[in-house]
Amino acid sequence: MSRLTPTPSQRAVMDCRQRLCVLAGAGSGKTGPLVESITLRLEESIGRQPELNITEILALTFTDKAAAEMRLRLARAFEHRRLNSPDQRTAEFWRRQTARLDRADIGTIHGFALKLLRENPLELGLTDAPELDDGNRDLSLDVSEVIRDWLDEDCQELMDLLRIYRLTEIEQMLVKSAATMSSWGLKALSADLTARPDDFTPTVRNLRNLAEEALASVLRGAVNAESAYYPKVLAAVRDLAEDLASIPSEVAAENIDENLNRWRAILDGGGDWYTKAGRALRRGLYEALADLQVRRDEQRALPHRRNFLRLTELLSRALAEAKKKRGSINFDDILILARSLLARNPGLRRRQATRHRLVVVDEFQDTNRLQADLLAYLLIRSDDDRSFPEDYPIWREMNWSEASDDFVVFGDLKQSIYRFRGAEVD
User: Helix, strand or coil for residue 141?
Assistant: First the structure.
């Protein structure tokens, strides 16, 4: 394997010794600079104390295949340097790096997290390292078992929802919610549950303005005044505008159901407005009424939304307890537990910082919040003795001016394939 002849931009990447985010499109040749960056860091340490070893570099990507390819390319780069070493000491250095490649932390972020858990089971309150589910267990099976328990217990939130939804619909919503919570490392879902009658006031005001504009447009000729349907259209739009103008928006909002029915009946009484301009005005009024109806439905659904959000919280606990009894975890649990370990244990963070003197991440565009937080804990200052809540958004809140410089990420914004798992390319 010949040594990479870099372009100026590739050379800039390889020579940088600060925190670095490399954005490179498909086919631009980022894998070569990634491998060369690692190799150069090793090469620069030859003869220094302490020398950098490949086992002190954490190199992560998003598939086992990509990790194997990275390991293979590093092996070729090390061998090339060994064969072209200027002296025996340098050749021996590259021989050692090649021999240590099998023990190097080169793999997926899930693989790194699982290794972290298996090395620290006591920190999790476990006597043995957790076993990874074989992937054949369907989440819906666990959710169904939890729902059956709730039915046996006459769970009030579930009973209330069953007055509105079928059991199969509730189960489907909970399965989807459980998958989202697991992927994002959440213990429950949240939503804005504050809605008051005056929330409708701006929408009522908008409808009144639209009715006034429609009346003015009809009078200016948006509907043919000579047509047989004109009087009915004019009467409808005038009645609607006058009705809306006759009461304050705040008062209209307090009796929204009654008023919605009346306004809709008035508009229906106008029939078809026939002309293109007339139909556009009529459509705008109906859309404003529909928006008002949606807001009303949202308010009416608030108690049910509270019940559902409460069920997601109960579900998260029940699923965690079921997995604890089985002594197993799934792929999302690996990241959640590893993040929790690092969040609350500054001593473990220090050991990881000593162990990994350089962190390199490929395909960073496929990282979600949970994975980013896990990585961020590896970059905190070694003298930071704080213990964080396990769901603390450390990546977002981190003081990056104090973070480790030994962090390099490579990615391509256009190639994110894990958005459905919560990956955020921005």
Answer: helix
Q: Which amino acid is at 166?
A: R
Q: What's the pLDDT tens digit per position in 50-77?
A: 899 999 999 998 888 989 999 999 999 9
Q: Say which residues have a Cβ less than 8 Å from residue 103's Cβ, sequence separation at least 6.
A: 55
Helix (H/G/I), strand (E/B), else coil: 326: helix
CA 117/CA 330 separation, integer angstroms: 12
The continuous run of DSSP H or E covering 8 comes out as: helix 8-15
Query: What pTM did the predictor assign?
Result: 0.58
Beta-carbon count within 10 A of 297 CB: 9
The model's pLDDT over 195-221, given as tens digits with 9 standing for 90+, comes to: 554 567 788 888 899 999 999 999 998
**Rounded distance between C-alpha atoms, residue 408 and residue 32, angstroms:** 14
User: 């074989």: which residue's tokens?
Assistant: 134
> 308-346 as b/e, with b when 16 or more CB fall inside 10 Å?
bbbbbbbbbebbeeebeeeeebbbbbbbbbbbbbbbbbb
Bridge partners of residue 61, in order along the sequence: 108
Give the closest residue to 158 by CA, choosing from 313, 298, 300. 313
Q: Which of 10, 108, 2, 19 is nearest to 64 (CA)?
A: 108
Q: Which residue has the tokens 């780069």?
A: 77
The residues, any chain, with a CB within 8 Å of residue 250's CB and separated by 6 or more, are 198, 201
